[in-house]
Amino acid sequence: MRDQAEALRVKMMQADGTAARSVAIISGKGGVGKTNFTTNFATALQAEGKRVIIVDMDIGMGNVHILLGTSAEYSLKDYLTGERSLEETITESADGLRFISGGSGLETVLQWTEQRFARLIGAFEKLQQQYDYILFDMGAGASESAIELIVSVDEIIVIATPEPTSITDAYSMVKFICLRDPEKTFHVVSNRVQPKEDGNEAITRLQFAMRKFLNKETTLLGALPEDAAVHKSVIAQRPFVTLYPHAPITRRMNAIAANYLSSGTDIDIKEGSTFLSQLKKLFARGRG
Ligand SMILES: Nc1ncnc2c1ncn2[C@@H]1O[C@H](COP(=O)(O)OP(=O)(O)OP(=O)(O)O)[C@@H](O)[C@H]1O
Ligand SMILES: [Mg+2]
Fold first, then answer.
1. Residues of the domain holding 138
2. Considering the domain boundaries, does residue 10 fall inside one?
3. Of 103, 195, 229, 258, which sits 20 to 30 A from 148 (CA to CA)?
4. By C-alpha distance, which of 143, 156, 158 is closest to 182?
5. pTM for this prediction
6. CATH number at residue 213
7. pLDDT by residue for the chain (288 residues), tens digit each?
8. Whose CA is nearest to atom 15 of ligand 1?
9. Structural domain includes residue 286
10. Which of 36, 136, 158, 191 to mutate to test the pocket of ligand 1 (most atoms within 8 A of CB)?
11. Domain for residue 287, yes or no?
């Protein structure tokens, strides 16, 4: 039943020309678990029958490939400079997860030539037709080029740990983005929650501050526990949801993916993706 409904929805979206959702995974403070979240969330979405691709936007320090136990021969940069086709920049892991690495030296989009920008738009047009979700694993903090991309995506998932510094840095980052685009859709996830801790308490404070000071409503997708399975899966270079399908953290991740999918369905049908038009607007402003 669910599969039939899903098939219909996909068909309708294709008929409408509605494209993949673009999602940026961000944090304030670094090292809170964005990349591990991204690879495992992607795996969980894929297990739900979604077509997913990860774009590693942690320029210069990207490590999606390490967590997936493979290396990328070419990067988005090689495609943008015209040296490689888009297909050549897509790498598939042994577990069947696809990603593109950004490549070092991807400086700010606003400094690009028309031609190079046209290639970027061309790449995302293709990806939007071929996938349901494009997940951007961002580096920590707010470099200019990262912000340009972040303000263009359809949705943002903010990862924070319960530590006060992680929460305040996440708030600063969200505020910075909201000033550029007050309409942005945010979801929050807390990570590395200690067994006896209420994972939602710190993240609820973040949500409260966003509501009170930025007038921004967010959905809490869930909390992930501190779990040795993460470290072991990093060593094994495979996602923990694949390696430890029955671990508590995997159950939580699957619930987060299910929450995300149920929160996103309405948006998909009503609005479609605004990603490419946002990017184009941004570029036009940079020229004007
Ligand atoms: N739930 C968890 N339980 C235990 N360890 C975790 C958990 N989540 C992340 N870690 C550990 O935290 C470290 C940082 O994770 P990760 O690289 O995903 O963070 P990041 O936010 O992508 O970092 P950066 O900002 O540098 O890109 C890793 O060593 C990982 O093993
Ligand atoms: Mg990372």
1. 2-277
2. yes
3. 258
4. 156
5. 0.89
6. 3.40.50.300
7. 445 545 544 544 444 456 789 999 999 999 999 999 999 999 999 999 999 999 998 877 889 999 999 999 999 888 988 899 999 999 999 999 999 998 776 666 666 778 888 888 888 889 999 999 999 999 877 677 778 788 889 999 999 999 999 999 999 999 999 998 888 999 999 999 998 777 678 889 999 999 999 999 999 999 999 999 999 999 999 999 999 999 999 999 999 999 999 986 444 444 567 888 887 887 777 666
8. 33
9. no
10. 36
11. no
